Here is the input.
Amino acid sequence: MWLARMKTVKLRFAVMLAPLVLFVLLTFDLPVLTMLGWSFSNPTPTVRHYLYVFETPVYLKVIGKTLRIASLTTISCVILGYPLVYWLRGLSPRGRSICLVLVLLPFWISILIRTYAWIVILGNDGIVNRVLIAMRLVHQPVQFLYNELGVLIGMVNVLLPFFVLPLYAAFSRFDERCFQAAASLGGSRRAIFWRLFLPMSGPSVAASATLVFILSLGFYITPAVLGGGNVTMIANMLDVLINTLPRWETAAALSTILMITILILYMVNYRLRSGFSN
Here is the structure.
């Protein structure tokens, strides 16, 4: 009787779970498998699309530029976000709430609107150039936009909250008694930070930085608008390969390379977090 009841429960659980499994297969796994199939078909199985990507300088240049901009974006978010979160941690509860609202505020505004706002701020006739010229610091407008600098500024603006919020959540879970004990033993604030707080925050920084890097690899709107067609990243190249040329097999191969890169990054992040915890 007990075994029959357990089988009935398992059968009901499987029936309830089946629609969710089917949904995941159709919406996530099937598109990925289709992409992999296109990247290896011509229509017979082949690897010529991958060889074509690695033998064509323009694709290698786009991959290298994407990795460089993503790396600079991640480093900039770490440099700006880590001190910000550390400072937030020392505020009063009310002060932290106000600052967190300011951090969350960009999520309520469209990325497209925020990206175009940078044209108003950094354009040749924008606010920054007007101030610089009025202060006689420059004699002609500085070219902030339609280059990698403009794309970098826009991407950091969009992705900084994705670094700050997970890191703040991790910092909030730190046991304050550890730092109080270190202070009671004569440790200075600088020593406590370098020898205790920084090592404890290492896994969280690695996880947040990996998130920012992965998100920046697939950016499309910001490079398209602030790059002005002069900064082509992988997502922009995929748009050209799919909608303009079209070369779906090459686009599938390039997407697979991007997916493999993300998986490798995730594995490296997992190893780093394991090393920090040990």
The two ends are 47 Å apart (CA to CA). Residues 72-254 form a domain with the MetI-like fold fold (CATH 1.10.3720.10). Residues 2-39 form the longest helix (38 residues). The chain has a mean pLDDT of 85.
